[in-house]
Design brief:
With 249 residues, this protein is an all-alpha fold. It has 13 helices and no strands.
C-alpha cells in the first residue's frame, strides 16, 4: 500500500494531465448531447437524468449515442418530457425507448424510466422544481432521492449512480449545487482499477469492499488537500479507459 502523501502526489499529477489533455482520448459519454440553448433548462435536465438510471452494466458511450438519436428523432423526443413519460401507455413508452436502444431491457428499463418520471411529475412537476425544493443543496437532494423518496428513484438512488448524476447535472446540466464538495467519487470498474494501481486499496479489497467503502477511503485520502473526491473521477476514469498509457513516473 502506498502512503497517503504518495497517493495525493500522483492524484495531482493525474489532475494536471487531465486538465492539460495528456491522458489520451477524453470525450465523455455524455458529450453526446444536442448542445442545448440557455432556454432549454428543463429538457436539458431530463436529458441528463432519466438515461442515467439505465446506465447499469452497459457501454456508456453506446447508451448516450442512443440517447442523442432518441432526442433527435421527432417521434421519440417525447420521452424527454417528464409528464409525458409519466403518463404514456406502457406499451407506447416501450416502443419509443426501444427504437434507438436507449432501453435494452423491455420491461425493467421501461418501468424504471416511468417510475422516476411519475415520482418527479407527481411530487414536484419537474426536475427544476425538485432542485428548487432541495434548495439546490446536494445534501438535501441526497436525502430526498436516497431516503425520503428512495423507492421512487430506482437505480438513480444507488450511491454510485446518484453521486455521478449529481456531478453530471453540474457539469452538463448547468446546475450549481451547494455542498457539492460532499459528492463522492463513483467507484465503477475504472475507478476501482485505479484505486488498486495507486495503492488506495489492495486487489483483494477491490473485490470485497462495497462501493460506499471505497468512496469513503477516497474521501479520507483527499481530506484537507483541496481536491474534492468527485474531481478525481474524470482523470481516473480516462486514465483507465486509455489503458494507463499516461505514465506517472
Amino acid at each position: 500500500m502506498e502512503s497517503k502523501e504518495e497517493i495525493i502526489s500522483k492524484c495531482r499529477i493525474l489532475l494536471d494531465a487531465y486538465q492539460s489533455g495528456k491522458l489520451g482520448y477524453m470525450k465523455m459519454p455524455e458529450d453526446s448531447n444536442p448542445n442545448f440553448s440557455e432556454d432549454e433548462n428543463e429538457v436539458r435536465l431530463v436529458y441528463f437524468t432519466l438515461p442515467m438510471s439505465l446506465n447499469y452494466q452497459r457501454d456508456s458511450y453506446k447508451l448516450w449515442e442512443s440517447v442523442l438519436k432518441t432526442f433527435n428523432d421527432s417521434e421519440t423526443r417525447i420521452v424527454f418530457d417528464i409528464k409525458s413519460s409519466a403518463n404514456l401507455d406502457e406499451e407506447q413508452l416501450r416502443k419509443l425507448l426501444l427504437k434507438h436502444k436507449i432501453a435494452l431491457q423491455p420491461n425493467k428499463h421501461i418501468a424504471t424510466w416511468q417510475k422516476i418520471s411519475k415520482t418527479i411529475s407527481e411530487n414536484w412537476g419537474s426536475i427544476s422544481k425538485l432542485l428548487e425544493f432541495a434548495d439546490y443543496d446536494f445534501l438535501k437532494l441526497k436525502d430526498i432521492v436516497q431516503k425520503q423518496f428512495k423507492k421512487g428513484f430506482p437505480y438513480l438512488s444507488g450511491p454510485k449512480i446518484f453521486n455521478y448524476w449529481s456531478f453530471i447535472i453540474q457539469e452538463y446540466g448547468k446546475v450549481k449545487l451547494k455542498n457539492s464538495e460532499f459528492i463522492e467519487i463513483a467507484p465503477d470498474t475504472h475507478i476501482t482499477k485505479c484505486s488498486v494501481i495507486l495503492g488506495a486499496i489492495t486487489k483483494e479489497e477491490s473485490e470485497s469492499l462495497t462501493k460506499e467503502k471505497i468512496s469513503e477511503i477516497w474521501r479520507e485520502i483527499l481530506h484537507g488537500t483541496g481536491i474534492n473526491p468527485i474531481d478525481m473521477h474524470p482523470p481516473l476514469w480516462f486514465w483507465s479507459r486509455n489503458n494507463f498509457q499516461f505514465k506517472l513516473d
